[in-house]
Amino acid sequence: MMQKEEKVVVVLLIMAVLSLIIAFFGFSSQPAVYSKDSKLDERVYVEGTVLSKQMTKTGDHLIITLSNLDVKVFVTKDNGAKDVYDSLGNGDKVRITGKVQEYKNVREIVVGSAGDVARV
What does the pLDDT read at residue 45? Predict the structure, then answer.
């Protein structure tokens, strides 16, 4: 039969393991592949070829169109729009991570930082 101290240690070990499992599955920030079923504010990624890149007339934000995507990618001025614009060219293959948002009832992927846009 286990002593009182041994029971406490076993209970604490079980709690620690359960905490790690919850942290792994609950706080995992791995983005999912974007699809039409992606929910608003969901962190997603897309891969494709840059068809066009365009700075907005007001605000100096960037809009990227990818070859295989029916949604635009939006990079704000504060999140590195100029840096991304300068680093990408039409025809570049990229992987972009961002959050699904809506602007004027149209879905878009909003990039959090210039580091979320990478050539592949």
Answer: 95
